């Protein structure tokens, strides 16, 4: 049974740590169905089409944060702590992000992180 | 002053910045690069502006990257040799260290100063820096007071137009 104290920590100061999306998906324990949801959500937020072979360096800093958001929301984690999530997002994406978080059934907390 | 000529620059294999007019960055002025995520602001800094500044020489350049964990390690190593006991734990500490170092060096060797910051959490520190300088910022959180805007307007996923705000 999952401990109530466990949480996925998603720090926007270090949004993506792997070279490829394929490896980043493994870290989040996301299955094939979840992968498609990640790609579709990311494209909705950013307008950019990606697949599991994409290289993280192809994304801008803000896009990496959006990808981190998509991965976290589609992961099995039921409790997520986001650090500095909104800092690097433009107005439109900040609103979309806040809307997504409101709609999520996961427990989501926000913290101010440090780089 | 740094002048970047109008023209198209392919900064990534599938991404071009089209500067529709010359861009000038002058001392004792602030500039805010403004545009949606993914519109090429950081790419402009890294691929166009900084190389030109570095090639021109004759200036101090303070550059704070957006995700600066690698810079932090480099600065910690520098401080270990040059300022033992100085703690650098985050981006704010890093910015303070760089600006302090610059403040000590400048009086004996005054040159143009360009401070370039990409989504820096040390924004308030940069805005208070007292020496004459040119400040170039990317920040989505607020409109920087007295800053001239440079607009990045994405035309499609592969092309962004860049121009001065009227």
Oligomeric form of this entry? heterodimer
Terminus-to-terminus distance of chain B: 20 Å
| Unreliable segments of 5+ consecutive residues of chain B | none
Question: How many angstroms separate the termini of chain A?
Answer: 33 Å
Element order, helices and strands of chain B? Answer: EEEEEHEHHEHEEE
Strand content of chain B: 25-35%
Instruction: Indicate the radius of gyration of chain B in whole angstroms.
Output: 16 Å
Structure classification of chain A:
alpha/beta
Share of helical residues of chain B: 25-40%
**E-strand count of chain B:** 10
Describe this structure in words.
The complex is a heterodimer of chains A (115) and B (166). Chain A has helices at residues 21-27, 32-46, 61-73, 91-103, and strands at 8-11, 79-83, 107-111. Chain A has 115 residues and is of the alpha/beta class. Chain A has a three-stranded parallel β-sheet with strand order 1-2-3, covered by helices on one side. In chain A, strand 2 (79-83), helix 4 and strand 3 (107-111) form a beta-alpha-beta unit. The longest helix of chain A is centred in the middle third of the chain and has 15 residues, at 32-46. Chain A starts with 7 loop residues before the first strand and ends with a strand. The mean pLDDT of chain A is 90. Chain B has 166 residues and is an alpha/beta fold. Helix content of chain B is 30%, strand content 35%. In chain B, the strands form two sheets. Chain B has an eight-stranded mixed β-sheet, sandwiched between helices. A two-stranded antiparallel sheet of chain B has the order 1-4. In chain B, a hairpin with a 2-residue loop joins strand 9 and strand 10. The two termini of chain B are 20 Å apart. The mean pLDDT of chain B is 93. Chain A binds chain B through residues 13-15, 46-48, 58-66, 84, 87-94, 114-115, and chain B through 12, 35-43, 66-69, 72, 89-91, 118-119, 121, 140-141, 157.
């Amino acid at each position: 049974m999952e401990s109530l104290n466990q949480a996925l920590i998603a720090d926007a100061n270090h949004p993506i740590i792997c070279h490829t999306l394929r490896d980043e998906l493994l870290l989040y324990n996301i299955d094939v169905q979840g992968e498609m949801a990640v790609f579709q959500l990311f494209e909705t937020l950013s307008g950019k089409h990606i697949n599991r072979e994409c290289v993280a360096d192809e994304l801008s800093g803000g896009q990496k944060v959006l990808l981190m958001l998509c991965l976290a929301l589609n992961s099995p984690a039921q409790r997520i702590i986001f650090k500095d999530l909104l800092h690097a997002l433009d107005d439109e994406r900040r609103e979309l992000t806040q809307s997504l978080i409101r709609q999520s059934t996961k427990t989501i907390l926000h913290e101010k992180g440090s780089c | 002053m740094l002048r970047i000529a109008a023209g198209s620059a392919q900064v990534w294999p599938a991404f071009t910045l089209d500067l529709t007019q010359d861009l000038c960055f002058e001392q004792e002025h602030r500039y805010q690069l403004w545009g949606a995520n993914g519109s090429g602001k950081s790419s402009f800094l890294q691929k166009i502006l900084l190389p030109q500044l570095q090639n021109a020489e004759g200036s101090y350049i303070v550059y704070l990257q957006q995700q600066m964990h690698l810079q932090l390690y480099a600065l910690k190593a520098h401080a270990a040799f040059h300022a033992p006991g100085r703690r650098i734990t985050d981006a704010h500490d890093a910015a303070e260290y760089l600006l302090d170092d610059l403040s000590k060096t400048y009086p004996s060797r005054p040159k143009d100063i360009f401070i370039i910051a990409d989504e820096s959490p040390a924004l308030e520190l940069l805005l208070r820096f007292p020496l004459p300088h040119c400040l170039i910022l990317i920040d989505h959180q607020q409109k920087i007071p007295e800053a001239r805007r440079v607009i990045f307007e994405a035309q499609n996923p592969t092309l962004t137009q860049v121009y001065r705000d009227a």
